[in-house]
Design goal:
Order of helices and strands: HHHH
Helix content: over 70%
Shape: flat
Structural class: mainly alpha
Radius of gyration: 17 Å
Amino acid sequence: MPIKEQFARIWLGTLLVTYAAYFLTLVVVGELTPLMQIGLFAATVVVQVIVIGAASAVLELRHKGGPKADERDQLIDQRATRVAYHLLICAMIFVGCLMPFNNSGWQIFHAAVLAIAIVEIVRHGLIVSMYRRGVDG
């Protein structure tokens, strides 16, 4: 399995677990103070950084001297990024241009975080999918 696919799988799993816990906590707990909301978001990001940092180090050690990214790896990354970019633009137009008329503050923040999380999940899901099913160049 290519190192890029392994990394995408780890990142996808990390995103799903951390953001599911983040949004589930927001729903279950209900009203949180601003400091608690910042703390919850910071904890989510710190867990992601630790997991991805450790996974990157382990993958680098296991594949030291292995093959570098080739044209196929770059093509897969470019296609997944292109889809994610368009999805992100649409989501941010909604969050930044439409939501401020009816919502404010933390609702907009959480909507933006949700949009970014969905886009990253889609991107890494597409990378894994394209490695599994192949990509036409």
